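Record 1 of the preview.
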Amino acid sequence: MLAGEAAGRGEEVADGMQACASLIADALPGLEEAVGRIATTFAYVGRMYVIGRGIEFGTAREVALKLTETCRIAAEPVTSTDLAHGPIAALDAMFPVWTIASRDECLRALVADAALARKAGALLVATGNAAEEVPDASFRLPVPEAPLAVLSPLLSLVPGQLFAAALSRAKGLNADQPTGLTKITLAQ
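->
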C-alpha cells in the first residue's frame, strides 16, 4: 500500500487488495479441498523445485521456504529460465516441480520450461491464475486473476501455503511447530 501511495495509486491499490481478499475467500474452500486430496501423493517427496518468474519469483521463494520449514523438503526456488541452465539435470519422476503461472509477459517462458521439466520426467503442479495453461501438469490449483497484476502474488501464494500445511499433516509433522525451527533469534 505504501508503494501504491507513493505512486499516486493508493486508493486503487487499497481497492485491489480488498478485492483480492474477497476473491481468495471465495476460492479458499475449493483450494483447501484440492490440496487435501493431493497432499498424500507428495508424502514421499524429499526435494522439489518451485519455479516462478517475474513478479511470481517472490512467490516461488515463499512457497519453497514454507515447504522446507514445515514439510522437511529440500525445496529450492528457481526462475523458470534458470531451470534450463543446470537444475534440470536433477529432475526425474521422484523430483516434482511446482510452477506458478500468471498471465503476464513471463508466461510463455514458464510454460516452455515446465515442458522441459515434464520431458525430464518431473511431476508438475501448476498454480496461479494461468495454471490451466501449463500443459501436462498432473495437478492444477488455479486462483482467480487479481484486479491489478502487481497484486497477483497475494492470490498465487495461497495454494502453496495450504499445500505446505496439508503436506505437513500427511507426513505426520506439525506445521505450527516445525522440527528444529525457531522464529526467535537471541543476540549476545
